[in-house]
Design a protein that fits this description.
With about 90 residues, the chain is α+β, with helices and mostly antiparallel strands. Helix content is about 20%, strand content about 30%. A 5-stranded antiparallel sheet has the order 2-1-3-4-5. It holds the Pfam family S4.
Length: about 90
């Protein structure tokens, strides 16, 4: 499954266009390598996503084409969530 579709279906990022923008800006790494929106993801991959002030590390546990809202979190396991302090 494409990275941008996985992010949308798993509801990590709400819209696929936003998921595409985030990944194409180099803010997502899969297994330590920078990923684009078209990168294929598979079960067992570890992903790091840099949001504005938060970094999320997760492992992909399951891939499905469609899911219900309450089942979306079964698709991944959060390994680490780090808040980044902004200096003004």
């Amino acid at each position: 499954m494409r990275l941008d579709k996985f992010l949308k279906v798993s509801r990590i990022i709400k819209r696929r266009t936003i998921a595409k923008e985030v990944s194409d800006k180099g803010r997502i790494a899969i297994n330590g390598k920078q990923a684009k929106s078209s990168t294929d993801v598979k079960v067992g991959d570890e992903m790091t996503i840099q949001f504005g002030n938060k970094t999320l590390e997760l492992r992909i546990d399951k891939i499905v084409d469609t899911t219900k809202k309450d089942e979306a979190q079964e698709m991944y396991t959060i390994l680490k969530e780090t808040m980044v302090d902004t200096i003004e």
